[in-house]
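From the methods appendix. Each design record in this collection lists the tokenized structure first, followed by the designed amino acid sequence. Records were kept in a plain field format so they could be parsed without special tools. The example shown here is representative of the layout used throughout.

RECORD:
FOLD TOKENS (541 positions):
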């Protein structure tokens, strides 16, 4: 978020801080703290009495000196064991909080800034970090499960083809991908009559529609999840968004929308906020989207009053969905629509016309919450609004003729409520988001394993195989319907989810987790190769 002040919507971030936090109190407290520290240090510094060592014997001198030297050495080394604590040491205890605060804040800030600048320039070498320097072909072999590949055209190794489907050839379906802001799924286990956070979405999530339940986000922010998903890649840890770096001018050949565009689809990127945010208005037209539309377009088409229809980040979700529905109804060609909502985001403002349903927090839920309870409640009501509007949109689709020719995906960018929750199993739960698919029964496959693990990288490959006939595509992710390969979910924090559970990078506990770790390293190396080779090709032109 520190760098988000520079790269994100600075004005909106400041307004969020003003609305959600008592900045006057915070700044006053910091000032008083600094004054107190100054007074305390001054008291000791200017009132030190001299120590007379005339009667301090030689033995005491030597003993005191050695004691201080040994104590200083141990403090620097930080350990009595075989290995000292290095600056790259991540875990010093089994307590996650202590691991986070064990490093010097100034060092961490400088380190973060160096990583930020390096990533901005594209200097970080993920191929080397993952152990594939000089033999990147091995990463492609592992990722594609192919023993022999064309080393002169590595793209062929991760080029796949969907099966032939005459029904889809004759009657192509619309594909709508909704990325609901901050929709983590762990909170849903507390759904009840008195804590009805899902509202109209509930019946859809509990229906026989497709919903993969072992699915995680590729990253922990909006743009850093959105871009990799739409580019058929995985998130590169510690990197800045493609659209705000030297990669911003590249038209990536493996971009998800391009596959649909080649099949005759009209492709749209719709964001409920301003297109100047994170440079999306300039970046995504290069990635296969014919239309890139934001708040201004929605307001214009729906004749909205900005005072009533918008909040700090954009239009209320209801109007975003209304615009998508209107676009589908008036379409003359099959549609691919990707849309990003803006509610369920600080400062958690809900439309005045919306009637929230009272949320009563159970004792069990309260046990799992942390932080400012009033702010959390405000967030949960915005959460409820966001899910209710998603359910309302599905009601609109399913009760109209669009139900027969439209596929709707509900997913999320991340699970940012994790900062307000304590989890029984942090690794397994903290990054969980939905991957829900509504599709007409005429093309819906049977016997889908909904426990299959995955992440954002797998959304487009799965949709290609569900909605397109005899179509080639390039992707780092995989088709979750394919039962012949190993499936895993990757988050750029180092969390990996497998069929055997979730684990941290470099800490696999069994053979399945070991496979997933190898696939993660290969996926990251291949991602780095794809983006950098295309950057070099652009530079040569």
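DESIGN:
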């Amino acid at each position: 978020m520190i760098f988000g002040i520079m790269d994100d919507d600075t004005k909106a971030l400041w307004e969020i801080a003003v609305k959600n936090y008592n900045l006057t109190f915070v700044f006053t407290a910091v000032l008083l703290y600094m004054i107190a520290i100054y007074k305390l240090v001054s008291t000791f510094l200017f009132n030190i009495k001299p120590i007379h060592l005339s009667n301090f014997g030689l033995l005491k001198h030597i003993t005191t000196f050695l004691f201080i030297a040994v104590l200083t050495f141990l403090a620097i080394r930080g350990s009595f064991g075989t290995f000292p604590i290095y600056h790259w040491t991540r875990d010093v205890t089994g307590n996650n909080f202590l691991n986070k605060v064990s490093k010097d804040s100034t060092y961490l800030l400088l380190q973060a800034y160096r990583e930020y600048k390096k990533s901005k320039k594209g200097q970080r070498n993920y191929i080397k970090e993952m152990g594939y320097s000089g033999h990147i072909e091995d990463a492609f072999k592992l990722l594609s499960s192919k023993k022999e590949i064309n080393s002169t055209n590595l793209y062929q190794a991760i080029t796949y083809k969907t099966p032939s489907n005459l029904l889809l050839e004759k009657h192509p379906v619309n594909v709508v991908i909704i990325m609901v802001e901050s929709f983590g799924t762990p909170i849903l286990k507390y759904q009840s009559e008195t804590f009805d956070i899902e509202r109209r979405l509930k019946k859809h999530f509990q229906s026989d529609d497709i919903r993969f339940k072992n699915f995680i986000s590729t990253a922990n922010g909006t743009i850093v999840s959105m871009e990799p998903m739409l580019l058929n890649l995985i998130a590169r840890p510690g990197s800045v968004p493609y659209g705000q770096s030297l990669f911003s001018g590249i038209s990536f050949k493996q971009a998800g929308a391009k596959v649909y565009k080649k099949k005759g689809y009209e492709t749209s990127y719709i964001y409920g906020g301003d297109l100047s945010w994170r440079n999306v208005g300039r970046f995504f037209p290069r990635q296969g989207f014919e239309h890139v539309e934001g708040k201004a377009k929605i307001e214009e088409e729906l004749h909205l009053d900005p005072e009533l229809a918008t909040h700090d980040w954009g239009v209320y979700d209801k109007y975003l969905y209304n615009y998508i529905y209107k676009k589908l109804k008036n379409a003359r060609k099959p549609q691919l629509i990707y849309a990003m909502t803006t509610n369920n985001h600080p400062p958690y403002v809900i439309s005045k016309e919306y009637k929230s349903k009272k949320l009563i927090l159970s004792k069990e839920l309260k046990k799992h919450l942390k932080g400012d309870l009033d702010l959390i409640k405000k967030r949960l009501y915005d959460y409820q609004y966001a899910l209710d509007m998603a359910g309302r949109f599905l009601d609109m689709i399913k009760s109209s003729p669009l139900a027969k020719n439209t596929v709707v995906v509900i997913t999320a960018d991340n699970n940012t409520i994790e900062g307000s929750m304590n989890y029984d199993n942090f690794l397994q739960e903290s990054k969980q988001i939905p991957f829900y698919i509504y599709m007409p029964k005429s093309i819906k496959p049977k016997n889908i394993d909904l426990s299959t693990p995955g992440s954002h990288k797998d959304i487009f490959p799965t949709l290609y195989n569900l909605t397109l006939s005899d179509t080639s595509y390039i992707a780092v992710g995989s088709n979750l319907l394919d039962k012949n390969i190993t499936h895993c979910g990757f988050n750029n924090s180092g969390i990996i989810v497998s069929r055997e559970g979730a684990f941290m990078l470099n800490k696999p506990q069994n053979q399945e987790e070991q496979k997933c770790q190898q696939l993660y390293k290969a996926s990251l190396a291949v991602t780095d190769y794809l983006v950098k080779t295309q950057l070099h090709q652009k530079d040569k032109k």
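APPENDIX NOTE: The chain has 21 helices and 14 strands.
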